[in-house]
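Appendix B, example 12.
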Amino acid sequence: MAALPHDTHYRAVENLLYEWARAIDENRIEAICNLLLPDGRYTVTSRFNRDRGLPLAVIDAHGAAQLRDRIKSMRIANVYEPHHYRHILSGIQIVGEAGGCLEVRSNFLVVRTMDLDGDMAIYASGQVCDSVDVSGEQPRFRRREFIYDSRVIETLMVIPL
């Protein structure tokens, strides 16, 4: 069987997705900024809004610096009940190529655990649409778009997905 055109990059792309999730799960959230290109875009939006072409996103960072500022604010200015996430990723698939980047789709499930009482709940699930630049030494995200299935976010979204 002949290798598919994107087979050479699949493992590197998969590791990039896992590193993003692991950095958040291990409270190394600042590290995700290095996985996004300086002019990359990170958005979190509901499936309801995306399906209707509505522009509202819960998070919309136009570049790694803007995402870094959001995380810094989360660390020093925001007041919220301490919690952490556990990501489960599945269905990672390279679906095409555009503009020198690989187009990647995957599914996600995020379980949120509250630090004070240990309460656990499914926080978000959905699909991620990524554009991954593989031209450098390490792949990096040109675009990360988390599309969560629910129409609502319980309380607020402080920690990026």
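The chain has a mean pLDDT of 92. The radius of gyration is 16 Å.
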